[in-house]
Write a sequence for this structure.
């Protein structure tokens, strides 16, 4: 009995050492359930590589799921995931390994909107102690809604210099672009509905 | 004339390749009316309204046929086209043009056309605008061409939308313009031309609930010697997303072109909302997003965000995004074209798309748009 117990303890120690030395990352069940086997395998490789690099993996999985939801072909999904991983690496390098994951995806959006690595670094330095996810998101929003990058960057940098809060950045976005749908404008003068066919009270 | 024709053709041609959104409303109702200058009557009314949005273009067409008793009838139609510029901060320009006309049975008819510009200063929930137009009309009493200025303010507080607007027209009229006697609604010198400045001021408020909508509006004309005030109120109850019951009461102010003078009316109508239709480029099925109806987000609990948007005429509205692992979530019809759902969502930026009636995934109104790596666009929202 004592002999068997020693063997059991030894087996557990060896098993723990092996699992610690060789981490097992099973395939994300969302990928295997919704992508083709080929795409799932290739995306999973990107996810594993990103994890090894210390990059967040959830954005990569979300990108793949987005592609699947929109009916994109496998190769396009894989390319989109690879591109995102590359951009995440650029942003991580610019912001440093201590940058929270929540800053990285907005950082990618800013990068694609025209931000340089220097811009990201400057914004991080201006917002020490506060995340830069919202300012970066606002920067990307402004550019996406037609504002020139230089103007958008100057607006965001100016507010960051003044110590603006996340709420103030959101207000900046609202002031600058408001509702992008021009249909949100008030209707042009027209006759009121529900009124039968006689002239409405408009000039003359 | 050729320039104007080419402009219209080019505008519509370019718009045909944009993501067009269309909507058709049809009101059919019965009611009664009375006029100060004649007997009252029962009436039957049919009123279609068509709206089309494509990029920064907006086209609205509406009309109506009203049968007034056994022999009298009236028709009216209006069209307006707006072209919006890009935005410069809170500023946005608008080129506008349109026309309207009516016939009042065998008695009279008139048409009016205008073209001009407006400048909007706005945010998401409120705004101001100022505009100037050149107006031409062939009212039955005279031919007028005159400048018109308009301005106003609007705002939204939750489901309540209100608006204040003023139209000021400066008309030069001559006694010779009137084939008969000069209308007593005008203060015109009997022997020489007179410069008239008529200003129409109006205000309106509209509330949209889950299945009901209420609207009140009223106004008056300044500069006319006789009292010219009007008001109207209507209530709509949506029995289904496509069919509503509309009750409306109100009165009309007399106008230069009206042969009947002031009057009042009460109507009960069925309102059918048709659409969406497939846009001309064939790959997109989209539904009109009515004015002032961007995506609305409200934190309902630490875990849930309430999402609502309007899509008149849609049968199914779904959203998807990183908050749902990009699985479609169906919104529930709340009546009056309003769709809503409570969605698990953490505070901060999220990506989102919406689709109407199983069409293509598009960016919901009110969200920032960016390319999505898959040949389309994805919206970004900031969850509270």
């Amino acid at each position: 009995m004592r002999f068997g117990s020693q063997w059991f303890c030894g087996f557990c120690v060896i098993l723990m050492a092996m699992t610690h030395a060789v981490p097992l990352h099973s395939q994300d069940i969302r990928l295997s359930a919704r992508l083709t086997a080929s795409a799932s395998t290739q995306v999973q490789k990107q996810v594993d590589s990103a994890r090894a690099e210390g990059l967040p993996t959830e954005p990569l999985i979300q990108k793949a799921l987005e592609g699947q939801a929109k009916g994109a072909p496998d190769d396009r999904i894989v390319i989109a995931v690879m591109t995102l991983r590359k951009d995440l690496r650029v942003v991580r390098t610019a912001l440093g390994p201590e940058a929270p994951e929540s800053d990285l995806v907005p950082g990618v959006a800013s990068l694609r909107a025209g931000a340089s690595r220097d811009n990201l670094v400057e914004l991080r330095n201006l917002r020490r102690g506060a995340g830069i996810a919202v300012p970066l998101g606002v920067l990307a929003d402004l550019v996406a809604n037609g504002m020139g990058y230089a103007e958008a960057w100057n607006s965001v940098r100016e507010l960051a210099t003044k110590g603006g809060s996340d709420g103030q950045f959101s207000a900046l976005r609202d002031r600058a672009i408001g509702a992008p749908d021009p249909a949100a404008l008030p209707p042009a003068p027209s006759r009121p509905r529900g009124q039968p066919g006689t002239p409405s009270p408009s000039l003359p | 004339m050729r320039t104007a024709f080419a402009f219209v053709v080019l505008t519509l041609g370019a718009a045909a390749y944009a993501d067009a959104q269309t909507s058709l409303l049809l009101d059919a109702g019965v009611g009664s009316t009375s006029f100060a200058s004649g007997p009252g009557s029962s009436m039957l009314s049919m009123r279609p309204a068509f709206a089309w949005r494509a990029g920064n273009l907006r086209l609205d067409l509406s009309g109506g046929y009203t049968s007034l008793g056994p022999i009298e009838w009236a028709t009216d139609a209006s069209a307006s086209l707006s072209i919006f510029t890009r935005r410069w901060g809170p500023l946005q320009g608008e080129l506008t043009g349109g026309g309207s006309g009516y016939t009042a049975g065998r008695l009279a008819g008139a048409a009016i056309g205008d073209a001009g510009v407006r400048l909007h200063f706005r945010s998401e929930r409120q705004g101001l605008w100022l505009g100037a137009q050149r107006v031409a009309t062939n009212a039955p009493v005279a031919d007028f061409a005159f400048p018109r200025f308009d301005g106003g303010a609007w705002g939204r507080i939750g489901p309540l939308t209100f608006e204040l607007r003023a139209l000021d027209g400066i008309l030069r009229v001559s006694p010779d313009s009137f084939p008969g006697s000069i209308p007593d609604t005008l203060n015109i010198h009997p022997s020489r031309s007179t410069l008239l400045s008529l200003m129409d001021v109006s205000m309106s408020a509209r509330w949209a609930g889950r299945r009901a909508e209420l609207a009140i509006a009223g106004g008056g004309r300044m500069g006319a010697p006789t009292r010219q005030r009007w008001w109207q109120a209507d209530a709509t109850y949506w029995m289904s997303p496509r069919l509503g019951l509309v009750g409306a009461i109100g009165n009309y102010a007399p106008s230069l072109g009206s042969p009947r003078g002031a009057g009042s009316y009460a109507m009960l109508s069925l309102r059918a909302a048709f659409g969406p239709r497939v846009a001309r480029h064939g790959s997109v099925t989209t539904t009109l997003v009515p004015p002032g109806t961007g995506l609305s987000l409200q934190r309902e609990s630490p875990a849930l965000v309430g999402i609502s948007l309007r899509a008149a005429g849609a049968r199914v509205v779904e959203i998807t995004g990183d908050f749902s692992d990009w699985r479609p979530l169906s919104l529930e019809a709340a009546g009056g074209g309003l769709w809503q759902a409570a969605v698990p969502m953490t505070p901060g930026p999220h990506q989102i798309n919406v689709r109407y009636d199983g069409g293509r995934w598009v960016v919901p109104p009110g969200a920032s748009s960016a390319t999505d790596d898959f040949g389309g666009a994805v919206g970004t929202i900031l969850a509270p």
